[in-house]
Structures are given as structure tokens and as C-alpha cells.
Amino acid sequence: MTVRFWLFCLMLPLSAYAETPLSAIDWLAEHSIKGSPKLSSTPDLRENPALSATVSTDIEVTVLRDIQRDAVGLLPPEVTGLPLTLWRNSTTQDLLSLLEASKVSQNPSIQSLTMRVMLAEGDAPYDSNGKFNFLRAKLEKLIQYGAIDPALAMLERAAPLPAPLVPILFDLSMYSEALEPACEQVLQLGAAFENDSARIYCLARRGEWQSANIMLTTAEALQSLTPRETALLHFFLETGSEKTSDLYFSADSVLTPLEYRLYEAFGEPVPANDLPLAFSVAELSGDKGWKAQLEAAERLSKSGVFSDNQLLGLLTKKPAPASGGIWDRVTMIQDLEQALEANAPARISDALRTVWSAMGTSALATPIARLFYKRLVAANLLKQDLVLVHEMGLLTDHYQDAAKALITRSRKHRLEVAVALNRFTFFSPRNEFEQAILKAYKTPRIPYSVSNLLAQGKLGEVILNATLQFEKGSDGDLQDLIEALSTLRHIGLDDTARRATLSLIKLGY
User: Fold this and answer.
1) Nearest Cα residue to 416 out of 434, 432, 430
2) Alpha carbon of 46 to those of 50, 294, 414: distances in Å?
3) Three-state secondary structure string covering 488-507
């Protein structure tokens, strides 16, 4: 888990409020997370100076330690470029509503921005009341993206772990193959841990089979378990129960992390491809085969939480044993990699065109572009091939260099060039979408609500609102798109706005 987590942090394009460069995260090398989180040490968090800023005149007594837990983050301001006051002046409920409304974005730059604000250190909301609702909401957002290792690291920094956060720790330990189930924390809580199925499972894992059977019988009588949980636990405990009709999992069911592990335990694993992203993390160990590992890596790459280099390592691990589907993608990437290693321009050209024709408009286009762009630029390719290479480059950190190269090589990329270089002087929009982009960059529209929130010091709300509006804009609401891009640029996230725009132009979503 340690390597995967730090690779995840290193891959984030942390060009944030001041568009801070990646080199700022040298501090990460000083940290390590090994095995299951011990959740016992006290993290070195900043003091919370926001308490005097509360708007309420009522005096409430709250344990400072609990407020600090709601302020937990992994990345300091010098890394993210985001101030510690990011959440301070907002109410917890307002932030929870925004996080609940946001879905997993398909746009790489919006994914990166979401991860950045979720991992940022920042003062707790001023009404933080020791229930850890805001921290839990951030953890749930990380889980939605499949960012299990960072979520575990957040919990480690919140140590010693309070009882309300143990259920989410247990779920995280079920998602990750790298950890032992968090049964010690579950059993320490006893009856205070309300998930009876987890307690039964943990008793069995500790070898207390009789206690587990008694608890299962009691829970069944009290109807505190679902029929499926009951059937799965009977099967897991080998009670001899004949109630197998409830074992079967249908595609429209909601599967819990524990149920996923129970199906796996008796040899009937549920394919992770049909489940939420977090379930794919368990496939990365390779225990279920290379194909399952590849499919999981692709899914997590598309959500922006899997390292490009790890993806390439998996894709080039060995020759594809068959054709069709994912094996065709493996073969295409391997052909391009081998052609580059051989420095064979003709082979590179053929392989490049094959790869980009098949994947250039898919969610894998961005990681592929990031992996190969600089190497392709250095290859001795013909002009028509270089146009394709620089088109790929628009999806990378080097989008400005790619745009400058396209000025002299291609006229069909005029919108991308205008966005990348912020040069709209001679740009004439041809449709409503291009008109919306032009407005966002030349005559930005900052909603009154944004100005009002900024005046109140609610930068976190502004960012979350902007990501929501961008998603609506991507679905066709051009007014929301204009306001989202205008807002991002207004608060200093111009690089994020331009990259998000370029991805939207190239890949649509």
C-alpha cells in the first residue's frame, strides 16, 4: 500500500491556487504507511485558529482533539496552494450537501482538483461538533474515486480513532488486499459497533466460532441482518444451514465490502467491473489473475487514482495470451513501447496511429498521452505524425508546448491552441460550444453567489460549486460551463481550467 499511496500523491497535478509545481512535494518522502494503520499515534496537526470566527453567539464546549480530526488532511498549503481557511467559514451541512451532490468526474483535471481539496490540510468548519461528519464525507468521496490508500492514510492521521470512524475503517480494510481486516477495532467496541455482520465475521476470524454462531442466531432472531447477510454468514461459519436461496447476488443489488469478501471466501467472487470503483482495488494484488488486475488498473486510471507508470508496467508485463477486448489494448501498447525502444520511426508511426485510433477518444487517452508524449516528440517522426503527437500533448502537462507546435503544423486545432495559450484575439467561434468557451476566457461571468461566498471566506464551497457546474456544463448546460470556467480562473486556478477545457474539447465526456 505504501508505494501505491505515495505514487498516487506524486501523480496528482498539484498546480493549485498558485499552481504549485510538483517539486513542492518532497516532504512526502519523509512519510511512510506500512501495512494496516495502527491508528494509535497522535498526528502533528496545526492549531485551529478558526474558533473565534464562529458566527454563533452561543458558547459550546467541544473537545479540541475532535475539531482537529475534522481538519485532518495529508497535503499542506505549500503543496496544494490552498489556504488553511479553505473550510473554516463554512457550515458542515453546506459542505456535506456539496460533496453529496458531486459525482465521480470523468475529466482528469476535475478529478485532480477534487482529490486535491479532499486531501488538503485545512481548518475544520466553524461549527464542527465532534461528530466527524466532514471528515467522514471526505473519506467517502475518496472511496467513490477508488482512492483507498489515501483514505486509510487520512484515518491514520486522525488517530487515535474515535468510535464513529471505526465502521469506515472496517470498510476500507475490506476494500484493500494489502490490509488485514480491522477486526481489532471492531471487537474493542463490542455492542457499541452496530454492524452485527462485521462483529460476527470478526469473531470468526479470531477463532471464536461458538461466540460467532451464538451472535448470528441472536441477530437472525432480532432481524438485525439482511437475508443475504444471514445466508452468507451461515455459509461462512459452516453452520449447516440450508438457507441458500438468499445467497445469490443480482446486478441491481447494493453489495457491502464485507459481503464482497464473503462471496470471495467461499469461491464465488463477484466481478469488480460491475461494482463501484473501490471494489477494483482488491483486484490489484494479482491473486485473481492478470486480466482482473488489468481491468482494475484501467478503471482506476480512468478515475485518476492509479499511477501511469504502474499502468504501463501492467500492460507490458507479458505478451497478451489472446485477442479481443483488453488483450487488443495490451498488444497495441506493447507494440508502441517496443517500437519506441527500438527507435524505429516507421514502426512507431504505425503503432501510434493504431493506439490513438482505438483509444484517442476514450478515458484512457489521457494516461496514454502522459506516458508517451515526450518520448514521441523525441522520436524522428514525419510531420503528419507529429501533428498527432502534439494533439496527444494537449492532454498532458506540456499542453502549451504542444499548442505552440500545432500553430505551425495544423489549422484544425485552433480552439485548443486558443485555450492552451489564452490567445483568442483572432479566434472566431463556429458554434454555441465554442462561443461559450470564448465567453469564459474573454468576458468571464462571475456569479454573485461566488463573489458572496468569497467575501465570506468560503473558498472551499466555491471550488466544490465550480466542479459541480463544470460537470453540468460538460453535460450540455453551457451557462454552467461558462460560470465554472470563469470561477476557476477568477480564484487562481487558470491552469486547472485550461486543462479541463482541453480535455472536454478532445474527449467530450
Assistant:
1) 434
2) 11, 40, 47
3) HHHCCCHHHHHHHHHHHHHH
Upper half-sphere CA count for residue 172 (Cβ side, 13 Å): 28
Radius of gyration of the chain (CA): 25
Q: Which of 229, 265, 234 is nearest to 249 (CA)?
A: 229
Using alpha carbons, select from 326, 297, 311 the residue that is nearest to residue 369.
Answer: 311
Rounded distance, CA 290 to CA 112, Å? 28
Instruction: Show the cell assigned to 470.
Output: 463544470
Give the separation between CA 250 and CA 439, rounded to whole angstroms.
47
Contacts of 131 (CB under 8 A, 6+ apart): 164
Residue 120 pairs in a beta bridge with: 75
Question: How far from chain centre, in Å, is Cα 299?
Answer: 11
10-residue stretch averages of pLDDT, the chain, 509 residues long: 47 43 29 33 28 29 57 93 96 97 96 97 90 94 96 91 94 89 95 95 96 96 92 91 72 87 89 93 87 95 95 96 95 97 96 96 94 96 93 97 89 92 91 96 96 97 98 96 98 97 89
CA within 13 Å, CB half, 506: 33
